[in-house]
Fold this sequence. Notes:
By secondary structure, the protein is an alpha/beta fold. The protein has helices at residues 17-31, 56-61, 78-88, 108-118, 181-186, 199-209, 239-248, 261-271, 299-308, 315-324, 329-343, 345-359; strands at residues 7-13, 43-49, 68-72, 94-98, 102-104, 122-130, 136-138, 141-143, 149-151, 167-168, 176-180, 213-224, 285-286, 312-313. It has two domains: 7-248, Spore Coat Polysaccharide Biosynthesis Protein SpsA, Chain A; 261-359, no CATH class.
Amino acid sequence: xxxxxxxxxxxxxxxxxxxxxxxxxxxxxxxxxxxxxxxxxxxxxxxxxxxxxxxxxxxxxxxxxxxxxxxxxxxxxxxxxxxxxxxxxxxxxxxxxxxxxxxxxxxxxxxxxxxxxxxxxxxxxxxxxxxxxxxxxxxxxxxxxxxxxxxxxxxxxxxxxxxxxxxxxxxxxxxxxxxxxxxxxxxxxxxxxxxxxxxxxxxxxxxxxxxxxxxxxxxxxxxxxxxxxxxxxxxxxxxxxxxxxxxxxxxxxxxxxxxxxxxxxxxxxxxxxxxxxxxxxxxxxxxxxxxxxxxxxxxxxxxxxxxxxxxxxxxxxxxxxxxxxxxxxxxxxxxxxxxxxxxxxxxxxxxxxxxxxxxx
Length: 360
């Protein structure tokens, strides 16, 4: 154990060495003492290999990065086991779990650890993750009444005001997150009953049960290629999802409206058009409490709710409601104006298409 280490970066691996190589290069460029006069924290990097069969073992052996350890499992035991294995061998007081398909931007990991150190009420902190086209992949996670999880503001511009707001969430992704080692061990680590799915949201909910906050920290920014590791979900039916539902059903207050695809289908039957096809350009959600839904019968009250609840569910849902109620065209214009303000172009185009349907 290295007593100088404050932060242990744990990276599970399974093949895809080119991503691991690029991730490590970006990581060490950020944490290297040569690149900053007073590094906030001393890091170590713990690689846990889930029995990769590509060039990963041979290439890792050639690396000469400081404070880098490599641990190889005999078989692929999945994300949870690999992360727990790494955590058990970590020297730091804080753990950062980091996928290998990341490009780390300067300061990204420091911000996570600083958030934990600054406030004991915070249990786990997650990053702002961007696709290579610099749109949002992760800005926190939310769930509906069916316990289907979604990344809020997916596809939004990286600098959108909603995306830049620091906020408490039900969950953040473990693709890049930080937690104290003491709390991680207290909670028993990731639940190894899950296989490459739902380990992170399960951990976040247990963090909340322990009385701690789950925080989305937009100041921590990384590029995420997403799901580059093979076998994330081994079958069409995700057994981890079913396990998660069994364990958490009735214990989680949803912060999304139930996925609107059912309503979209019913609406499609009504107007003879598959509205779902109009929604493909958008994947954003709102966290308006259910008890507030009776207030959303006018554009004015909806605007008030928007100011109170910045997690905005699919703006199309409001337009759908206008269509369902055969709202007057002026009301639809008000709704579209709101969408234009909060969502910019993609949903405005959707609104115009719905308007054409109404006219047709």
